[in-house]
């Protein structure tokens, strides 16, 4: 069933979906709800670069004609002359827990390794987000450790688990 999950660029008629998923606390869920921010930022970003810039990008996760969520990536520069991608995912509640997130993250890794010279792709997730940790591991990521007080949500700092996949790492079947 999840083999039909695909990634595609965000189209203009997808923008209301993107805005709802990223600004509705019920849809964003407890690990991604960052509070109320300007929902027009998504349209401005799309008008600027189609949400596919040099340092950051967003792709829609779809199955057939159904929009399931988003995957995103942003460039991080951990040291001079080196950089990596940090990826994230946001799925509609009805698409969670059925393998769509694992498949979407695998597809994003394949895409980024095929179209950029990057050596490392990483992901960070809340220590309490066990479902995302399992999805990342199934997608071929290796758990590296816990980053204490790394994110701020809901009025407090949260520990995050750091995962990575390197270009030469074996890919899951």
Task: Write a brief caption for the model.
By secondary structure, the chain is of the alpha+beta class. The protein has five helices and seven strands.
Structural class label: alpha+beta
| Fold-level CATH name | Aminopeptidase
Anisotropy-based shape: globular
CATH architecture: 3-Layer(aba) Sandwich
| Number of domain modules | 1
Structural Rg: 16 Å
Beta-strand share of residues: 35-45%
Discrete helix count: 5
Largest beta sheet: what is the strand line-up? 1-2-3-4-5-7-6
Query: Topology as H/E string?
Result: EHHHEEEHEHEE
Distance between the termini: 16 Å
Largest sheet: 7 strands, mixed
CATH top level is Alpha Beta
CATH homologous superfamily title: Gcn5-related N-acetyltransferase (GNAT)
Average pLDDT value? Answer: 93
| Fraction of residues in H or I helices | 25-40%
Q: What is the number of E strands?
A: 7
Poorly predicted sequence stretches spanning 5 or more consecutive residues: none
Enzyme class: transferase
Pfam families: Acetyltransf_3 (PF13302)
Protein name: GNAT family protein
GO molecular function: transferase activity
How would you describe what is shown here?
This protein has 173 residues and is of the alpha+beta class. The protein has one domain (2-166): 3-Layer(aba) Sandwich (Aminopeptidase), CATH 3.40.630. The chain is built from five helices and seven strands; from the N terminus they run βαααβββαβαββ. It has helices at residues 15-23, 25-28, 40-49, 100-115, 130-138; strands at residues 5-9, 56-63, 66-79, 82-91, 120-126, 142-153, 156-166. Strands 1-2-3-4-5-7-6 form a seven-stranded mixed sheet, sandwiched between helices. It is globular. The model has no long low-confidence stretch (mean pLDDT 93).
